[in-house]
Amino acid sequence: MTNPSGDSPVSLEVIEGTFDLARQGRTGPLGEMIDAGVPIDLRNPRGDTLLIVSTYAEQEHTAADLIRRGAELDAVNGNGQTAISCAVFRKNETLLRMLLDAGADQNAGGLSATAIADQFGLADMRTILDEYAAR
Which end is more exposed in the chain, N or C (fewer Cβ atoms within 10 Å of the end residue's Cβ)? Predict the structure, then answer.
């Protein structure tokens, strides 16, 4: 099977295993997979990236490592979600600030991070987004 993003041939088993590592916060083994040639911006059949999945799963160390390694910050999955929108939805201030500090675009995706904060009444997340937008 080819990686859904078309970057390289990667089997579905490798894709699933790699995403499990990101979801479980297994930063070391995930890094080894990337070092061995698994694309850092690999996508699963839903269009998620490793950064989106690790952010949604609130795996801060894994997300930080992926950011350090150069993961695409503004990748959009099949539902229009980005890592930053996942951080807002999960109400994770640490991940939100980490992504914003790294340069993630709070307006990327089908619904911007601000729109998600407003839709779900996440005033604390909206305050952080506004703080960064004012910079």
Answer: C
